[in-house]
Amino acid sequence: MEYVIVIVALCAVALIVGGVTLLRRPVRRRRPPVPPAERPPAEQHGATAVDEAEAAAPTIERAPPTEAAPPPPTVEIEQPPPGAGRLVRLRARLARSQSAFGKTLLGLLSRDTLDDDAWEEIEDTLITADMGAAVARQVTDDLRTRVQVLGTRSPEEVRALLKEELVKQIGADLDRSLRTEPHGTRPAVLMVVGVNGTGKTTTCGKLGRVLVGDGNTVLLGAADTFRAAAADQLETWGSRVGAQVVRKDEGADPASVAFDAVKQGIDTKVDVVIIDTAGRLHTKTGLMDELGKVKRVVEKQAEVDEVLLVLDATTGQNGMQQARVFAEVVNITGVVLTKLDGTAKGGIVVQVQRELGVPVKLVGLGEGPDDLAPFEPEAFVDAILGD
């Protein structure tokens, strides 16, 4: 019992001593909270040292996610106008270049007195228009005879006489149609030949537009493999009207390109295949070998319906020299005269037909895509005479 009393007494003493100690401890005042704007960076929102390091690190801009390349733009297929009536629509361009020629002739024929000097001037005017000396002399003689028979010459009569004579010399009765009808399951094949620089490849593209405008399906063969730009040009022309294009690498065999073009034309059942050939006038022998090979290879699959020679109307006698070389090399069936709106020498139409014995079938009258037109003698003469 004594032990219990002693333990209780000790506990009581311990409680008294602890209470006195607590009463003597000073009371600590609580400081007001610091506003967020005034806190040091490490204290804001409970930031740690790691947060401070991340805040001090430079900001790295991340590239946006790579997007897939947009699809190439769709080329809108154009519907060119038909070939019929194109020359009438483009007659104003002819009139601008040929009107001086026609007005000079009409003025000379309308003189009160037509003596030998006047007729000589008429002949000279025809010669300077690239009609050729022999043709100019014949036209002058025929006109002189008719004027003497008629006696009186009103402006209307003079104009009618001149128109009749020019149309006769140009050849209104010549067949100027293009043979573009397919042969059963085989397409019509047109070879286009000529010297580079005459507008040969561009003519192929424009001719394709004429044929598409007339309701044909067309394939273009880029057999001028000596110029990569020629194949590129054809692809541009073809994409506009939905025409297929067959091409190979630069320097490939032209005959193989022509062969593949005709084969694909047969497989895809197109109406017309147009083959653009090389225009190098290196030597007559080389040219003959090359064009002859292209034609022979093509004819293993389909008949060549047209061989069209492209001539630059502004080159005059130089163009005629080129025409003679090609005529000796390959059987030309028709002529395409380009840049006829850029020369006053419309008489070249008559001269080239006389020299080659084939008709002018198409004429180029500008740089627009639809400026190639089937040649119509009467519309051409009307433009010359300012009708």
UniProtKB/TrEMBL annotation:
It comes from the Bacteria. GTP binds at residues 194-201, 276-280, 338-341. InterPro entries: AAA+_ATPase, P-loop_NTPase, Signal_recog_particl_SRP54_hlx, SR_rcpt_FtsY, SRP/SRP_N, SRP54_GTPase_dom, SRP54_N_sf. The chain crosses the membrane at residues 6-23. Residues 67-83 have a biased composition (Pro residues). Its main location: membrane. It catalyses: GTP + H2O = GDP + phosphate + H(+). Residues 359-372 form the SRP54-type proteins GTP-binding domain. Residues 30-83 are annotated as: Disordered. It is a peripheral membrane protein. Pfam families: SRP54 (PF00448), SRP54_N (PF02881). GO terms for cellular component: cytoplasm; plasma membrane. Its EC number is 3.6.5.4. GO terms for molecular function: GTP binding; GTPase activity; signal recognition particle binding. Involved in targeting and insertion of nascent membrane proteins into the cytoplasmic membrane. Acts as a receptor for the complex formed by the signal recognition particle (SRP) and the ribosome-nascent chain (RNC). NCBIfam families: ftsY. This is Signal recognition particle receptor FtsY. It comes from Actinomadura montaniterrae. The gene is ftsY.
